[in-house]
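Need residues for this backbone.
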């Protein structure tokens, strides 16, 4: 299937539509099989029949996972085209700098969009890593925005007050917690290297804090070396959400003109 044949504005909905259109016969067969096998398993109490029912459900899950992956790639290809970026399937994680990329193991990237935005190199990609092993392992997924500037930025890590705060906690090292004015501290935890508090105050003005509270209180941000990372703690699946996050990055660039233009 060529990208121009379908417009993907919602990955999950498009995946279901793709399964119904291309595999409806298999879906019907699997559903009937599950119903029959489950009935036989309950009637005979045969554990082998129950295992067969579970296998049938797994087959359906695999079919949907295939469709979801296909639609996800297409979704990112279409968004890349809409903003004039190039698309590649993978990215080497070793090229990344943020604290997120030091967590866990088995890291990988896919659906990488690359281009220039307002004169700055920019990448958008999906990132995955695993924490723990065996029965206790858990895989985390993020959509990440990366901008590279001309200037070296102060190292600042802004974490949304969410379940990810615990995830990032082990990577904060000797960072100092900084409290800002107003309600900002209800939504974010801010960390900087010891002695860099003043730089944080200069960047996070009342206007920038209000923008982050209103539009980005579910996101995490990191300034490191010459880069800004914006971490969305899930895979972005819809066009409106992707456009909203892209617009937020645009706002951050505008707010930081003095810092990022220095050579």
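Answer:
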């Amino acid at each position: 299937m060529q990208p121009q044949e379908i417009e993907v504005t919602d990955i999950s909905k498009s995946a279901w539509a793709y399964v119904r259109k291309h595999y409806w016969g298999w879906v019907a067969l699997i559903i009937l099989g599950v119903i029959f096998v489950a009935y036989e398993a309950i009637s005979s109490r045969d554990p082998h029949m129950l295992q067969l029912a579970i296998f049938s459900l797994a087959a359906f899950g695999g079919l949907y996972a295939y469709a979801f992956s296909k639609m996800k790639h297409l979704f990112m290809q279409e968004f890349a085209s809409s903003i004039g970026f190039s698309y590649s399937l993978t990215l080497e994680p070793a090229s990344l700098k943020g604290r997120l990329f030091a967590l866990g193991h088995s890291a990988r990237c896919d659906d990488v969009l690359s281009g220039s935005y307002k004169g700055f190199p920019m990448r958008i990609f999906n990132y995955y890593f695993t924490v723990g092993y065996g029965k206790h392992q858990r895989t985390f997924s993020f959509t990440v925005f990366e901008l590279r500037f001309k200037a070296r930025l102060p190292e600042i890590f802004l974490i949304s007050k969410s379940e990810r705060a615990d995830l990032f906690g082990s990577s904060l090292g000797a960072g100092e917690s900084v409290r800002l004015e107003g309600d900002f501290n209800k939504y974010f935890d801010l960390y900087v290297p010891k002695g860099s508090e003043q730089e944080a105050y200069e960047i996070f003005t009342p206007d920038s804090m209000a923008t982050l509270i209103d539009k980005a209180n579910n996101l995490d941000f990191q300034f490191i070396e010459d880069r800004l990372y914006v971490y969305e703690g899930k895979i972005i699946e819809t066009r409106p959400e992707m456009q909203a996050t892209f617009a937020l990055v645009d706002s951050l660039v505008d707010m930081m003109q003095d810092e990022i233009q220095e050579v």
